[in-house]
Amino acid sequence: MKITVFTINPIFPDKVTGGASKHLNYITRFLGDQGHQVEVLCPETEELGTPFGLHDNVEVFPELPFNLPFPQPYAVSPPDLSLIVSRISKRLTNADRLYIHDGEWLIPDVYADIPTIASFRDNIYPESVLGTFVGKLDAIITVSDYSRAVIQNTAGLFFPGLSERMHTVINGIDFDFFKHVDFTNLASRLGLNPEEDIILLHPHRPEQGKGLAETIRVANRLVHKHGLSQIKVLIPEWIGSMVSSGDSIFYNEMMHLIQDFELIDNFKFVPWLPVDRMPELYSLGNVTLCLGNIVEAFGNVAYESLACGTPSIVSRVGVHRTLLPDELIEKVHFGDVDEVVQRILAILEGKEWHPDRVLQALIAKMNIQKQIQSYNEIITNCKKLKPITFAQPDSTRGTAYKLPPWVYFKEDFIYHDFHGKFENASELASLARKSEMLSEESALKDGITHEMWQAWISKSWIVPVDHLKE
Question: 157 and 67 share a domain?
């Protein structure tokens, strides 16, 4: 079978730019191992413009003139978009399947005659969000129960039957690779002394929402309030061709913040490491920090770190709220610096945790072989289906509503993943404690005004559920 793959992220022969491209590597290699002929279409970059092989049966064609670096990959001229459409269309003329990695191909007429599968690997980037509303995909893969629920409660409102095309395939971890390893060579290369340094890891791309500002504030508290001058925070340098003007501005702002807090000696910027050295980095750290408010659909870093025996602290945002139970991973409310500091101090003081139990839970939930086999089955067994017809849902005062997956309560305050903040919502909290299902009809009887109910809908604190197939 010939399988054409589209990804809007550049693919490089010798480096991985993040979790999405790492999993694409896993998936395409497995498809190649099964004897399928796989061609990967991706953006061309300054570094790369000629085809190269990832595997005997997998070839990458960096030939699409998208706008790089991110954001706004579709900010291209009409001739360039025409060229992109032409090149993808020609590749599909003799393809048996099209697999869209991260759902970011937004011109569905191109694949009108070929079984098409898309995986959605995030819930925030505009192209992925728009992709969920296309309605012409034959199969949809989501990487977590959280991500599936987000799509069901947004695009699913308008495309009846969307859930029937959805498959949840939890991202897997290669536990033969991600495990505690000797980190001596890496420590020496980075000029660190693990016997004396307290090493905090922030192994994320330099973009807003990944928690760098929060990490800096935590380090400031640890160094200047608790006297831990031996703190070393490791931050990766981003790949040159992928640095946008927004990234540069953000980085400069963060450097000023580090300087203002007099933390220059406590932060170390390290080269972007290849995947095969990441277990060393995770093993080297005392704690891995994932403190951002970016709405992760999965969040590989936190769980790869756990697999390597290093505790992770995550914000209760997106998938991190539910992927593992609270006793297996440290969860904090977004922006609560004091809570993060106390969790780090407890870990450094020898707080009891059970890495064996954590590893067992990870292995049970995040099986890499199950993941790639599931992708193989979904892609190869996919059939061409009729597009789903758009339908505007009806809503009356008796329509049932519920809290969507992107909100949760901290006492009377509601946190909204996509707003990135807490707001007072005492009246809604009171109703939600009484029943999971709400309606305007019953809310009016409890003293809620029509205006307040409509405000909750406008803030997407509640969503209709009568027509959803959970």
Answer: yes
